[in-house]
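check this one:
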Amino acid sequence: MSSTWSDQAASYSTAGAKSELSRDYDGAFTNYVRAAEIYMRLARSGESADVRERARNAAGRVMQRAEKVRPLRRDKGLLDPGELCASTAAQQSRTLSASALIAGLRYEQWDRPGGPSNLKPLPLSPFSPAQQALGAQYRSSNGTIKGKEPLRGEDIRQDVVTDCSVVAALEAAAEHDMVWGTKLASSALFPQDANGRPCESPTGEHKVRLHLNGTTRCVPINDELPCYADGTPMCARGQQSADEASPSASSFVLWPSLIEKAYLRVMGGYDFRGSNSAADLYALTGWIPEQVGLGSHAGFQREKTWERLSGAWKKGDVIITAGTGAGANAVSSTDANESLDLLVDSHDYAVLQLSEKDGSRSVLCLNPWSSQRGRDQEGRLHLDSVQSPATSNDALRSKPFWMSWDEVCERFDALYVNWNPSLMKHSVEAHFTLRKQGTAAPDLGESMRQNPQLKLDISKSDGACEGEEVWLHLARHFGPTKENLTGSGDYVALHVFENAGNKRMYRQRVDGKMGTYIDGMHNLVRFTVPASTSGSYTLVVSRHGGADDASFTLRAHGTHEMTLSELPRAHPHEISLPGAWKARSAGGNSTFATFVHNPQFRLIVPSTSSNADILLTLEASKDLPVQALVLWSSGRRISHCISSDVAASSGDFSYGLAVLQASVQAGNYTLVLQTFEPGQEGSFMLNVQSSVPDLVLEQIPPEGAGMYTRCCRGSWNVSSSPPKFKLEVKQPSCKFVVRLQSREVSSSGRPAVQLSIMDAATGRQVETSGPFVDHVCGVLIDDLRLSQGEYFLLPRHHGGGIQTGFFIDVHSDAPIVCTPA
């Protein structure tokens, strides 16, 4: 099957190239997109990791060609990758292609053994302030690339660069290589010898393969390194001298220096802002990252965590580093049983060994610091993230030291864990982009409409064991500029729910596994699959904050075959409108006189369609109770409603989100969006999906919008004559909208009222609001045009003994005079 798909994709790609050469750009674009779709299908379900990786890279190449020819097409109606949904192959390829830009530099996909050709080394990274103070200069350093023998973890040392997480990751990986015979720590650096170890480059140029932004990418560099005046590397380095205090030039092993150089080039330079070792090690090796909070972190289970980690450690399936928080202040013991503070704040350590003997659990830790760290001219040390004077503990801090498991749990803030991806036989992936929310967007915490939602189908063989896990790894892509490189202030979570009927979710359910919102680059969610023959799950990516667009890669790892697809929208046609309940427009529900002022929309279902299926979502702040009503009307603003007026409803008021699904006949309707009480203000987003393409949704202007407004107040009293108001029209013609509303009467309720307009000269009735009614919003005379002259407004009530006040809002398109008569 893989061979067939590959042949089909290659055929389309070749056809696209031929069309492009003959300047048939429409045909070229179509063929390139088809080739990309097949390649991405192969990338998700290829028979081996190598096949899947080659397919991903090929998809990226053909989509780059599609992007080149897209502006040259004559037929703009052809399929455009920018218009495709997030899960289509073409859009995923486009996401990967766009994600090649990181902090202003492009990093091409690693598309062949040895990496892409004809790439020039990237510009040299700027020095950190500590390096500048010590007179760093770029030069070809003393030392060798691979050394006489493989490095152990403690052979790799940090210098003055504040990248303890990177060096700890290299140390932990190097120790794993020594114990298990792997090449994880150094395998990213090319060229390599016949044994797969980095070797010298005759041109002085190297390529570093890193896992970045959804795929493996190439970082081309030269062999120049930041150095002291004597040629000693002023950066991470390997050390194989017996006496670190007196190293010889030939004892420096430089593959750690070059890998560090490439990674920090991606991260903006040697003035590194910090990371965690799991994220760094993922970039170097592709092993699945996980952060385990220790101590008082919610959900931490000391016993289960040890069992899970030590079991994998014994098989070589895990690499561990650890990080301290503020106030580490831990102590351990030397062989002489002398207590020394060997931990420092906000620092990462490599874990070299886990040991359990006679019920005693211990962890062997290593500080990346070198005992010969850089000093400035005044003898002060440049430390990682802290400034402290030199002490007799510096040499001890650079050597491995044992801590009990209990002490690790108490003194460290987190463990950074990387898992062997081959633990899971199957994996699928999807790449997508979340658009920025913008500062004016409401907090849509209760709504899931805008969140990417994917369906994960798991095929389990008969007799599958209960308790098998699926791991979901959500990785944020580095941003295209230095300012949004890591998405500061951007919190993302991944939620898992059992799938119901292949439909998208619009509100959070209580029966799912709710992920934790984190502001890091990686989020791992693990859940257990019941012992059934198959399973289907809805995966929801939720984002809070985010001032910029951000792309992500979601990978699912499991022991059974899986497919990952985007859940379709309910209907193909969509309209979105923002709005707000503000001041007067926050009218409350239909029992209030201010209901008429709520935001209202004209909904027109064209006569060309007998019925239209619609899905309406009203999203607002999670503390606002909201409801949406579709009312039978002529599409005009309405002031009151009863149950028989309602064509469709979102149901009871609900906080933050109202969802309305209905099939409506052709015709004109009024859509009313309301909060429960008047004065409840806030922004909202209205979204309507429809089965018909020409459905119309437009906001109805507020009553009297754009007109002059006068408010006349009066009262009905038993002892006085009926009130009336004199209306003077001085223009040849004037348009009016007039509303009469009464105040509540505590003893007998609201009176039934009527409003009439009479010609003052003839006594003839010009217009009336209709029969007496007791609507809470009063009565209305709408769209009335009067010629020049004098008129009387006659507010009336039905029945006797009424004593209450009223007011009349008079809206006109020209200045008028309205006074009590």
Notes: Residues 129-419 form one domain. The two ends are 91 Å apart (CA to CA).
